[in-house]
Amino acid sequence: MKALCYHGPRDIRYESFADASLQSDTDVLVKMEKCGICGSDLHIYHGEGFSPDMGFCVGHEAVGEVVEVGRSVKRFRSGDKVMLSAAVGCGACAQCLAGHIALCLNNAAGCYGLSHHLEGCQAEAIRVPQGDFNLARVPEGLSMDQALMLTDAMPTAYFGCRNADIAPGKNVAVVGLGPIGLMAVEAAFVLGAARVFAIDLVPERRAHAAALGAVALDPADAPAIIRDQTHGRGVESVVEAVGHDATISLALKLAAREGTVSVIGVNQTKKFDFPMGVAFAKGLTFRIGTCSVQNEWAELVPLIQSGRLHPEKYITHELPLSDGAEAYRLFDARTAGALKMILVP
Question: Distance between CA atoms of 241 and 156, rounded to whole angstroms?
Answer without folding.
Answer: 9
